[in-house]
Amino acid sequence: MADDVVAEAQLAVTELVTNAVRHGDLAADDEVVLGVDVRVSDVRVVVSQPTQVKAALPAAQEPSQAVTHGLGLVIVDRLARRWGVEPDPPGRVWFELGLKR
Hints:
The chain is α+β, with helices and mostly antiparallel strands and about 100 residues long. It contains 2 helices and 4 strands; from the N terminus they run H-E-E-H-E-E. About 30% of the residues lie in helices and about 25% in strands. Helix 1 (about 5-25) runs antiparallel to helix 2.
C-alpha cells in the first residue's frame, strides 16, 4: 500500500477513534474496535463502538482560524472516497480510501 494512503488512513482512523472515545458514552470496560479490509482497489476501515453513534452523518464544519476542534469528520470527508455512519448499536463509522492513484 502506498505511503500516502497509509498516512491518510492513519489520520482518518485517529479522528474516528477519538470521536468514539470522546462522544461515545462508553463504559469503563467498553471497547472500540477497528476493522481494516484491504481489497484490490481500495481499503475499507470500520470503527465500531458498543453504543449508538449519536448522529447520522453529522454536519461537517468548514475549517477556519476560529474553529479549534470538531473538524474530525471534515478530515474524513476530504480524505475518503466514501464514508458513512451506522448509528444503531453497535455504532459504526466507516470510510474507504482508493488504492490506485
